[in-house]
Design goal:
By secondary structure, the chain is an alpha+beta fold. The chain has a single domain, classed as Beta Polymerase, domain 2 (2-Layer Sandwich). It contains 6 helices and 9 strands; from the N terminus they run αβαβαβββββαββαα.
C-alpha cells in the first residue's frame, strides 16, 4: 500500500497538534481514524499521541477533561465543545489482563509497540505529512489481515477484551 501524501485532518485537530508542536512536543495522529482513512472509510475521530505529559496538555489548553489522566489521556475541547483525545506517549509496565500500568515520556516507537494490532499501529504527522508504520500495518490492511503487534498470546493476556 502506498501512503497518501496528505490526510484530510480536521482543522480542530490541526490546531491542537500545532499548539503542542510549537510548545516543543512531538505529536502524531494515531489509531482508528488513520486506519479508516487508509481504507477510504469516513472517520473524523482523530486521536493524537504526544511527548507532552498530561499536566502539560492541561496547561496548554484552556478547556480539557481528564478522561483517563492516569493512563495519560486528556480530552481537549474545541470551540464546538467536541472532545479530541490527546494521550502522552506511553509504554506498558505491567497489566492484570484488563488494566495496564503505564510509563509516560517514552518514544512514538514505544507507544506504537504497545498497540493491539498492526493496523492500529500506524502514525501520521499532521504537520510534516510523514508516516510511521514500524509493524507493516498498511501491508496488513491491503492483505485484509489482522495481526497483533508482537506476541499474540501476550497481547491477549494484556487485555482480555481484545
Amino acid at each position: 500500500m502506498t501512503f497518501p501524501k496528505r490526510l484530510p485532518i480536521p482543522p480542530e485537530v490541526l490546531k491542537i497538534a500545532t499548539r503542542l508542536e510549537e510548545a516543543g512536543y512531538e505529536t502524531w495522529c494515531v489509531g482508528g481514524a488513520i486506519r479508516d482513512n487508509l481504507l477510504k472509510l469516513e472517520n473524523h475521530d482523530f486521536d493524537l499521541t504526544t511527548a507532552a505529559p498530561p499536566k502539560e496538555i492541561q496547561r496548554l489548553f484552556k478547556r480539557t477533561v481528564p478522561v483517563g489522566i492516569e493512563h495519560g489521556t486528556v480530552a481537549v475541547l474545541d470551540a464546538k465543545n467536541q472532545p479530541h483525545e490527546v494521550t502522552t506517549f506511553r509504554k506498558d509496565i505491567k497489566t492484570d489482563g484488563r488494566h495496564a500500568v503505564v510509563e509516560f515520556g517514552v518514544s512514538l516507537m514505544d507507544d506504537l509497540a504497545r498497540r493491539d494490532f498492526t493496523v492500529n499501529a500506524i502514525a501520521y504527522h499532521p504537520l510534516r505529512h510523514e508516516w510511521r508504520d514500524p509493524f507493516e500495518g498498511a501491508q496488513d490492511l491491503e492483505r485484509k489481515l489482522i495481526r497483533s503487534v508482537g506476541d499474540p498470546n501476550w497481547r491477549f493476556q494484556e487485555d482480555y477484551l481484545r
